[in-house]
Amino acid sequence: MLSREEILSIFEKTGVLKEGHFILTSGRHSSQYMQMAQALQYPEYTSTLCASLAESFKDSQIDVVVSPAVGGIIVGYEISRVLGVKNVFCERENGQMTLRRGFEIEPGQRVLVVEDVVTTGGSVKEVISVVEEAGADVVGVGVLVDRSNGKTDFGYPFYSLLSIEIKSYDPEECPLCIEGKLPAIKPGSRSL
């Protein structure tokens, strides 16, 4: 497993942590944003980070790794490669997380759900519902970064490489909005 210092060093080298005024996928606002795509554009860092996370699940007899699009696709693929198992991803169709592209999860399969970053865990919870509706068994959830600092509960074993708390606010309570000096931007993969 990578140490906290090694993980932070990779994030620093690749510019993962951004400062500004951001609208998160959850709709909350924050002065910091973790753009994992900055690290995941480098195969050597992606391989190192994902192999370390996969280590937590090596004895879990995983059949399938599933992740939410878009942020989790690379992480899901790399972890499935390390574990030597099938990889699929869920994406939104008419606002609902679903399996598309002919992907299937079979009843009884042992499934690992992975994501790059979680704050509230909303997308992961939606993917878990897809897996449960398919009749498969969620054996765990793995993320590279847990921005909730361990406060998010998925109801399954949960592992993250890095757990930190980055403050976020309801838009009405956001100090940056109240100051009005810095416009809010939405850097993620989903539109408002």
SSE run: HEEHHEHEEEHEEH
Query: Quick one: biggest sheet?
Result: 6 strands, mixed
Structural class: alpha/beta
SS strand fraction: 25-35%
Instruction: Give the helix proportion (percent range).
Output: 25-40%
CATH topology: Rossmann fold
Number of strands: 8
What average pLDDT do the residues reach? 93
Order of neighbouring strands in the sheet with most strands: 5-4-3-6-7-8
Number of helical segments with 4 or more residues: 6
The Rg value, from CA coordinates, equals 17 Å
Shape: globular
CATH class: Alpha Beta
Q: What is the domain tally?
A: 1
Any guess at the CATH architecture?
Answer: 3-Layer(aba) Sandwich
How far apart lie the N and C ends? 36 Å
Low-confidence stretches: none
Write a structural description.
With 192 residues, this protein is an alpha/beta fold. It has a single domain, classed as Rossmann fold (3-Layer(aba) Sandwich). The chain is built from six helices and eight strands, in the order αββααβαβββαββα. It has helices spanning 4-14, 37-40, 43-54, 71-83, 122-133, 175-179, and strands at 17-23, 29-34, 64-68, 86-93, 96-99, 110-118, 137-146, 158-163. The strands form two sheets. A six-stranded mixed β-sheet has the order 5-4-3-6-7-8, sandwiched between helices. It has a two-stranded antiparallel ribbon with strand order 1-2. α3 packs across α4. The longest helix has 13 residues, at 71-83. The relative contact order is 0.19. The mean pLDDT is 93.
